[in-house]
Design goal:
Layout: H1 2-45, H2 49-54, E1 66-70, E2 75-80, E3 83-91, E4 95-99, H3 140-148, E5 161-168, E6 171-177, E7 186-188, H4 192-206, H5 231-235, H6 252-259, H7 284-295, H8 301-313, E8 322-323, E9 337-340, H9 341-352, E10 356-357, E11 360-361, H10 365-371, E12 387-388, E13 402-406, E14 410-415, E15 420-426, H11 435-444
Antiparallel strand pairs: 1-2, 2-3, 3-4, 5-6, 5-15, 7-9, 8-9, 10-11, 12-13, 13-14, 14-15
Helix pairs in contact: 1-6, 3-11, 4-7, 4-8
Length: about 450
Amino acid sequence: MKKFFKLVGFASFIGVFYLGFTTYPKLDLISGFSAKSIASGHFIDHRSQSTIEKGDNDIKMIDYAENSINDAGKFAVASVYGLKERKAIYREGLGATLITNDFDVTKPYEVPKRIKLNNNLPFPYGNKDPLDTVFTNVDYAKLNVAVANAFDKKGELSKRSRSVLVIYKDKIIAEKYDTGFNKDSKILGWSMTKSVTATLFGILQKQGKYDIYKPAPIPQWQKDDRKIITTNDLLHMNSGLEWEENYSTICDATNMLFQAKDMTRIQLEKPTAFKPNAHWNYSSGTTNLLSGILRKQFKTHQEYLDFWYSALIDKIGMNSMVVETDMAGNFVGSSYGWATTRDWSKLGLLYLHKGNWNGTTLFDESWAKYVATPTAGSNGKYGAHFWLNAGGRFPDVPRDMYFCSGYQGQMVAIIPSLDLVIVRMGLVEDPKFDFNGMLSGIIASIKHTK
């Protein structure tokens, strides 16, 4: 019997040791994610700590974190059983930033200059309430059922949608929010922010200030085989650069988001693994590298900060949007854009209208075609920082649909053939959430005529 207990004790020791050995390195990422999430959700969207913990942070292992908020100091702190404490600070105009212990919080910083939309027009071209429009070819009862089916019924916790918005011919025909959310709630788009970053290159191209087909303007690459990589390759995630993006473990992407002071440099410093345009590999590091390239197009950091808003975000009235920065002051173009559901839809509408916003052309019509054209090696599922349905990922949805997509199932779907933009924000992604069912159900409620 003593031998048995010794064996059990030894096995328990080995189990605890193994768990500690495999988990401890992740503690920094767990507390980092949690602190950043708490600070962003609380100070940007004014959510309570408990709301964030039950929603945004209800993720395996992230829920180990113990959190606290300091409203006076505008920061949040998280740790795991007192270990690996991380801090995220909030600065108006820049959002929340996860910082390291040596970050100087007293150092002055620049913030974007914003020009809020001010006119008497209704949504989407103004801030007034949308006009009530009834389309005779829309079965509203069927539409409302399709939208309602995207949400959990009382007592359920599987679909976890926070909002669904349907815009047909520039008019809102359906809009629904989960308890605790409304049209003014700012929601993190995660990787939908990548599509915002890419759009800025389309705008610069329209202005004649940038050529995406030339080698990327990165001095460090000019003496090795990376010198032939173009911005076009980067936009298509086809650069051939090494990168690992696997959020279930410590990888390039997690180290960048939760450790790096300057996120624009992580992909920049990677060697090539393939020739350009020969291997598609999704990389958040690539998008932040593009953010760094954008920074180099301006003489001052202030101009770089202003450009994102003056040329695009505020230009189309996405006035609720905040794109957060890293410790070096660069926009985290891969992941950290916050906006209301209605404002996210405006990005979709801009693309639906091929770059024209209420009579003003922000990017050429060819740019909308460019981002929606499949990139080599993606099997029809990716374009240029937009996801595609060209390969039939959603079998009951038109193949011309392309969309912004973010972690946990954020989506802005653009369906040119049907004059539709559909937004869904939530906490569960495909395949757990039935996007094909939601999209096809909405489409079936509209009788489409030529």
